[in-house]
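Example (one chain per record):
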Amino acid sequence: MAAATSMAIVAVTVGACSSSSSSTSSATSEATGGGTSTSATAACVAAANNYLKPWQTLPAKLSSSYASLPHKPPTGKLIIKLVNGAIPSDNQSYQQEAIAAKAIGWTSREIVFDGTVPDLNAKFEEAVTDKPAVVTLSGWPVASIAGPIAAAKKAGIVVALSSILDQPVSNPGFAALSNAGPTIATIGTLEANWFMADSKCTGSAALFSLPFPIVAYGVKVFADVVKAKCPDCTVTTSTIQTSDIGTPAATTAMVSTLQSNPRIKYAVPAIANLATGLPAALTQAGITGVSILGSVPDATAIKALQQGTNAMWVDQSSLIQGWTELNAALWAIETGKTVTDTGGYPLAMLTHADVPPGSGIPVYPANYAAEFETLWHVGNG
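Predicted structure:
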């Protein structure tokens, strides 16, 4: 998440219907009458801007964390992706995973579940009975799908998970991990530094998480960075249920948080799907001057960035995730070992100043598909 996300750590929650928890962290020195010194604030801003400098150039190629497979993958295999029907970006990842699979001569299929643990487990078991070479899934910790993973291991299936904190343990079985802890830590740190730089290290931010450990982890990273670097900043965190994504319940919860503290001028939804309708809801509520930022932008978020109603998105593309999931699975098949995430997931910082024109979701590097095909010894690469 890519999804995901994504973003205190919470357990996966099912069936709740509203924002459920919140906390606030802040630190203020009394050295200068209740605030930090001017020099300390200036140092905070300078450090944040310095961190952001490398991110001001959009990536033109994949990082060195992606290497060429030793051999061209075998053809004729099946890959099945379990798609969370409550998260639109999950289906976008599948569409790209299908293209990636076709490039290596595989077939692909998606099985959509309703976003609950019971239905996920049922659909996962269904996938295992079809005997694919690989099953992929994003965002769900191993504890919630232990039964199907054991069944996949017994059937000789590679399970390639993404956007979770668990580590691979066996091949076959849960053998491959991508877009995980190191990537989310980078995103949380990047978001925190952008917030500090933009607010001149005096701002207040409201972070809106989702009930997935990986998403909560990213939120915690953001809050911890700000607490360590910006004594005059405050961060409030709350959780919105997955079932509320794209509904008035989500925007109502976020608007309520912002109304409760007029000092909060930064809204940070864990993923862009959560931000749908938020600018309009803020306008209707008479709330002005709020900057919206986060990660995993969808087409709506990109349009809002172009129009200036959103401020910054970390382009953790849900499109590339389909390719990185398959890439991790191919390495697991090639080596017969477990494959973990070491970071390096393609990320870009987009603002109103550098977001490209046009509809859809920009992806960086733009030639990612050709680059992966080259790494896999297929296509024109």
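Caption: The chain has a mean pLDDT of 90.
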